[in-house]
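quick one before i forget lol
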Amino acid sequence: MTVRKFLIICSVIFLLALISFGGYWFFFRSTTEDALPLDTGDSSAPFPVIPGTPRPAGSQSSSNTSSTNTVGQIESTAPGEVVTTGKLTLITAGPVVGATVVSTGTSSRLRYIEKASGHIYELAAGDKIPEKISNTTIPQIQEVYWDNTGNKVAIRLFRDSLNTVQNLLGTIVLATSTGGTTKTGELVTTALPGTISSMAVSPDHKSLFYLNRVGDGVVGIPTDFDSKRTSQVFDSLLTEWNSAWTSQNAITLTPKPSQSSAGTLYLINPTNKTTEKILRDSTGLTAVVNPTKSLVLYSQSTPTGLLTSVFSFSKKTSALFTETTLPEKCIWSTLYTSIAYCAVPSFIPNGVYPDGWYQGKVSFADRIVVIDTEDNFTRIVFDSTESGSGGAFDAIQLTLDKDEQNLYFINKKDGSLWKLALDQE
């Protein structure tokens, strides 16, 4: 064998070995790195991404989406039974949507809707097992707005087969017993316009506000839960808005937030139909007004990350908030003007905000804190990142009971519903 032949054979053997090793490395490396725990999200989805949220037909769904309950170290000892560990109570592993606390005299009860089925459950204070009060099946519910009795509800759901959003008003007809026969409770619904793009409920839970697409723009309409009283209070050629109604005399509107666009906070008085603009040209703006319309908690995107601030109506100035978070993860106290309860990320990774969080590309691990914006005092109520806490959660849709002794929230990671005892001091 000549030296030349020998070198050629050796080169071929080496090349084949290199190709085999490269294929092996690429295959197993890809398998490992693809197992990411976070949803990559999709900006075309009509609702913020929560595990169990369907995507529009034709959109890309990530195979990496995880619906694992990251607060799953707390396990029920009986099917459907709530479980309490320290301050924290797992109401249901979910996913659920639209929890509300209904108070009657000295008693209270929690109502919520199971996301997959649309069945409605109730948990009275002190009870261990939630009771199903409506067996009406309405799958793919995404948003829920309750009236003050807990018997009427506005529902927004996604019909992925039609790639449309459906809006309904519903009334709960409770179970009845006649002659030894029990009729299961049900939800009787009527249709709202399918062109509604945003909805909010008033602080007293007696009225609704919605934005309805008309022609090339939208109109803003307050109404009641029977949809019998309507009057236009707002119109705009801009069609993409977030709405909230946290102060009785101020409905708030902000353009859909994005790091790539500036927004302005609009305050609409539903009584005299006047509009006020504040916080103009703030990039990625999201905001929540306190019940007395004296303070606004808001966040904006900056080149260095999220910036959270408080705007004072009386002083016409803003001051840095003591914590960095999104206003959507906060709720103002109804008992104390300057106090807010917030879920604060223990760490905010580099990313595009608030877009990445809305789309599910970023998930947080929160501390629940009480913040007095007047004294700049912060008290940590619960830290989900601490050892023995049961696992980290990304809290959304915060709700307080009447006396602010308990805070309810949904874990954005998996849609589970939780109660946290606040232990007021």
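fyi The two ends are 91 Å apart (CA to CA).
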